[in-house]
Amino acid sequence: MADHGPAPLRAGNYNIYTGTPHGGVVPLTAQLGLEPPRYCAECGRRMVVQVRPDGWWAECSRHGRVDSADVDTRR
Ligand SMILES: [Zn+2]
Q1: In angstroms, what is the span from residue 9 Cα to ligand 1's centroid?
Q2: 8 A C-beta contact, residue 45 and residue 62
Q3: Domain segments of the chain: what residues?
Q4: How far, in Å, from the CA of 19 to the mean position of ligand 1?
Q5: According to the model, what pLDDT value does residue 1 have?
Q6: I need a surface site. Which of 1, 8, 35, 62 has the fewest CB within 10 A?
Q7: What's the gap in Å between 36 CA and the centre of ligand 1?
């Protein structure tokens, strides 16, 4: 459980789409996995996001990069 998913997505301290501390509303497109995360769940920093035709990656300067290929479990 603890090692499921990269740190920038699993920490849950901040909403990864809005940057709101502890939860907040997740956009529907994000729930569907269509939208890349924009904030690090661990520290709330705004991540560098790159969208590719086949997915995306998002990188926190402190916690590293998350790739959709690593987190997409609903394909
Ligand atoms: Zn971070």
Answers
A1: 9
A2: yes
A3: 7-71
A4: 11
A5: 44
A6: 1
A7: 15
